[in-house]
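sorry for the late reply, my laptop died twice this morning and i had to redo everyting from scratch. anyway the thing you sent over, i finally got around to it. pasting the sequence first so we're on the same page, its 378 residues, then the predicted structure underneath. double check i copied it right bc i was rushing
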Amino acid sequence: EGSAHSTMAALLRFLPSRQTVWAPSALRVLEKRKNRVHRRMMSSSSDHPVVDCSVFFGSGSEPEKKDVLAQMKDALVVKGYFYAENVSVLPPEYIESVYAYHKKLHDLPTQVKSEYLVQKGGSYTGLDLGMDNAELPYEPGTVATVRAWDYSRWTPSENAKRLFYPGPEVLQPEMATFTDNLYDRQNVLGEALLTAFAEMFGLEPDAFRGHFKGDMGSIRLLYYPGCTAEEAAEANTGISAHTDFEAFTLMHQDAPGLQFLSPGGDTWIDAPVRPGEFVVIVGDVLERFTNGELKATPHRVVRTEHPRRSIIRFNAVNPNTLVEPMPQFVSDQRPPRYTPVRMKTHMETTMANLRAGKGAWDTQKNRSITANYVYSSP
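ok and here's the structure:
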């Protein structure tokens, strides 16, 4: 509601007085501004918040940007997510090309995929290559239908890329080249959002962004096959409930199945499919940085009869970054609620716990284990 009030104030600043005579060109500019602000008002009042990110790339006035920051903060605090629209580096036609490549990757024969299994030091996991190669369970006892090709810039060397990712002899362009281009484009949005997250709390622009260089981010191209009777006998979920271990995540889906749990809520919310927009959700790192002002967004994918694809980008921070409540979020009334930990340690601990079958989601308390994990030392 507060964001709607600030939007109305911004709109009133654009309205002429009765004595003002406007030239036709000025009226057209005014009308465009009114329409843009009206769209932002409509977005802020919808069930699924939509944020016009063009203001973070030089479009719009300072009052408009201030309004969008207020809307973004409200969306993340109340809902835990928003849809990012008008991102010029990730236009709909480019997203379509990513899905076309995505399909080529997942359509590779199982014999080829078996050469790139994570267990062999590669980048593929999937139930189609046996239970031993299924996604690690975030909830103990669950088996996921999801199949994944993963990409990260944390590959040891150029030579190792041949073992990690399918090369030009397998498909064109090679996986590392294609996904690295996607990574670059997502970085443009990622850095803009990290700046915006800081500014919406009144912090210096680089408060979060300064930890982003040399980040431990990754891309996942996920495929959920339509659940046949055979699949249903093996798997009981698309992917089980969890929060993401990094700072925040960009998510795109081509079919329904994704669900969110808003802060303090107990009802899972179906995330609509919006072809031209990525969903932005909060991860463990931002929850810990903000001392719980932002909450990592629980999410899951339900098992569906229809096939489903998604493009996921985890935005982490530098592995040596000390993740702890920032001073601006700590007071006598609100002491630190999280123990300090380095990004690399948080990732390694989380993955070790998953491999040990400990999971990442507390089903009894309905909350994230990883966001609230207590570390004895960084």
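The radius of gyration is 22 Å.
thats about all i looked at so far, will dig more tmrw
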